[in-house]
Amino acid sequence: MGKEELFRNPAMDWALRQLGGFPVYRSTGDEWALRHAEKVLQAGKVAGNVPGRHAEQREGLKPAKTGVARLALVVGCPIQPVALHGPQYMFRRIQHRRTELRSLLES
């Protein structure tokens, strides 16, 4: 499950759909996305949901929404929380290396 903005880029849309991804229209309380995720879970597959990290970094944690819990209750499947630590530094390193390369080329 991914926010619909991710699917606006044709390359990203293609890549996400190849991985089984589908858009979620958050502003509308997307019932189709919840039904689709329910079908995925009932088929014994894994569904992933990534909460918005940008808002958390600026304002702290916001109150949780009920979509994931609702799916788990309806389908009877467990919820496995996962934390990713490290990707937030990835682009900083790339930018730092670019700056180093630029200064080498200028000297």
- Report strand %: under 5%
Give the averaged pLDDT, no decimals. 80
Shape: elongated
Sequence stretches where pLDDT stays below 50 over 5 or more residues: none
With helices defined by DSSP (H or I, 4 residues minimum), what is the helix count? 5
Kindly state the number of beta strands: 2
Distance between the termini: 47 Å
**SSE order, as H and E?**
EHEHHHH
> What is the radius of gyration?
18 Å
Q: What share of the residues lie within helices?
A: 40-55%
Q: Give the strand order of the largest sheet, numbering strands 1, 2, ... along the chain.
A: 1-2
Any chance you could write out the topology, listing elements then pairs?
Elements: E1 2-3, H1 10-18, E2 23-24, H2 31-42, H3 53-59, H4 67-75, H5 87-106
Parallel strand pairs: 1-2
Helix pairs in contact: 2-4
